[in-house]
Specification:
Blueprint: E1 2-7, H1 11-22, E2 27-31, H2 56-69, E3 73-76, E4 79-85, E5 88-93, E6 97-105, E7 109-111, E8 127-128, H3 131-134, E9 142-146, H4 150-160, E10 165-169, H5 179-187, E11 191-194, E12 197-203, E13 210-215, E14 221-225, E15 228-231, E16 235-237, E17 269-271, H6 283-301
Helix pairs in contact: 1-2, 1-6, 4-5
The structure holds flavin-adenine dinucleotide (FAD).
């Protein structure tokens, strides 16, 4: 019987583990894919206090090392549901189950897809969701980034270092990323921005050849011949497995405020990080939630 079972080993879950272990609770962290979560996809983290620049992987490694040093247990498995009640929860996974007095859901979010025909067929072969993972495959090639927010602009800046050309395709008439990134984009000679345009179609039969885009104002359609696209149009949470024990909003986020106690949930369940309703989804806010959720769980256990 664990005191606290944490679902998800991103910055939120790992911080929760750190705080819970410092309170001498018996802690298990269950992660289905990548210890460190989304930040492992970031080539550069420059907005976390305490250091000037660090890769997301380096940052994640430090978090994991710290949590292991404090004595948290970790398990690689996918959680499929939570059963029971406070003091006696069963966290069900694909390969087994674990018992805990309390549970913290810190499942984060994942990349949103365009929802186009052939998108899944070409994933990894022309369609990517991560420049840091796949950018090197397109050295000297023509690529596009779909989206205009912070993640999209970060991806474009990274790709511009090695790709021949980078076309940023944004559905809105302006880029929504922060000003520092927009200024950096403007200075890059091999980056072109196409605004007010949506992707209509992925081109190519057996091999990815490019995309067809449409201007949302003029309705004009254009084919772009490309070697790859990098889709960066936001994220979606992964909370379906928990819809019986916590309330999800229309987008699938766990409804919760800064207390990290989900609205209307069974007592003893807490949430942290990008998986819950919140305005700003960043490492700093995920980490803040992790600390809050762990301390709430500790005081619940008593
Ligand atoms: C490309 C990119 C660049 C970024 N750059 C920055 C930056 O520079 N600065 C910054 O502050 N933020 C940045 N972010 C955002 C930041 O990474 C996130 O806000 C942060 O990682 C959220 O932490 P989290 O722990 O809530 O969720 P996540 O990091 O998403 O971690 C959740 C974890 O839960 C796991 N999980 C999900 N479902 C289950 C399940 N059923 N069972 C078991 N495990 C599960 C997932 O596999 C994942 O590892 C970036 C994000 C991306 C994608």
């Amino acid at each position: 019987m664990y005191d606290i079972i944490i679902i998800g080993a991103g910055p939120a879950g790992l911080t929760a583990a750190l705080y819970a272990r410092r309170a001498e609770k018996k802690v298990l962290v269950i992660e289905k894919e990548t210890f460190g979560g989304q930040i492992t996809h970031s080539p550069k983290v420059e907005n976390y206090p305490g250091f000037t620049v660090m890769s997301g992987n380096e940052f994640a490694d430090k978090l994991i090392e710290q949590v292991m040093y404090q004595g948290a247990e970790i398990e690689l498995d996918t959680v499929t549901g939570i059963k029971g009640e406070a003091g006696d929860f069963t966290v069900e996974c694909e390969r087994g189950s674990f018992c805990g007095k309390t549970v913290i859901i810190a499942t984060g979010a994942k990349h949103r897809q365009l929802g186009l025909d052939r998108e899944n067929d070409f994933t990894g072969e022309g369609v990517s969701y991560c420049a840091v993972c796949d950018g090197a495959f397109y050295k000297g090639k023509d690529v596009a980034v779909i989206g205009g927010g912070n993640s999209a602009l970060q991806e474009a800046i990274l790709l511009a270092k090695t790709s021949k050309s980078v076309t940023v395709v944004q559905n809105l008439p302006f880029l929504t990323g922060e000003i520092k990134l927009r200024e950096e984009i403007e200075k890059l000679p091999n980056v072109k921005v196409i605004l007010s345009s949506i992707v209509l179609q992925i081109l190519g039969d057996n091999k990815f050849e490019g995309i067809k885009i449409q201007n949302t104002e003029t309705k004009e359609e254009t084919e772009l011949s490309l070697d790859s696209i990098f889709v960066a149009i936001g994220q979606q949470p992964d909370n379906e497995s928990f819809k019986d024990v916590v309330k999800l909003n229309e987008y699938g986020y766990i409804v919760s405020d800064e207390s990290c106690i989900p609205e209307g949930s069974i007592k003893g369940i807490f949430t942290a990080g990008d998986c819950r309703t919140k305005k700003i989804r960043q490492v700093a806010t995920a980490i803040s939630d992790g600390a809050t959720a762990a301390l709430e769980a500790c005081s619940f256990i008593g």
